[in-house]
Amino acid sequence: MNTEITTDRKQLVQVLDKLPESAVKEILDFAEFMFAKRYKKKNTAQKRMRGAAKDPILKLVGMADVEPFADTIEHELYGL
């Protein structure tokens, strides 16, 4: 662990020890908000990927890329 981080954590604990419980609760709420904000993007992407694996429609995507469907779709869509 980085010495600077350790020092900051120790200082934070010292300050928390001096605050009333209501202020500690506010700081905890803020810390949880910061944690959620920082890691939300990563978790959201992971949840989307898990959801896509369960979606029956998404399982079929790409099925029409093989013959004889591919030519028919291109003809219908693009007139090729």
Distance between the termini: 62 Å
Tell me the number of strands: 0
How many domains, in number, for the residues? 1
How many helices?
Answer: 4
Helix content class: over 70%
The percent range for strand residues is under 5%
Chart the SSEs and their pairings.
Blueprint: H1 3-18, H2 21-54, H3 56-60, H4 69-78
Summarize this entry quickly.
The chain is built from four helices and no strands. The protein is mostly helical.
Describe this structure in words.
With 80 residues, the protein is mainly alpha-helical. It has one domain (3-78). It is built from four helices and no strands. The N and C termini lie far apart (62 Å). The mean pLDDT is 76.
Key terms for this structure?
single chain, mainly alpha, 80 residues, rod-shaped, 4 helices
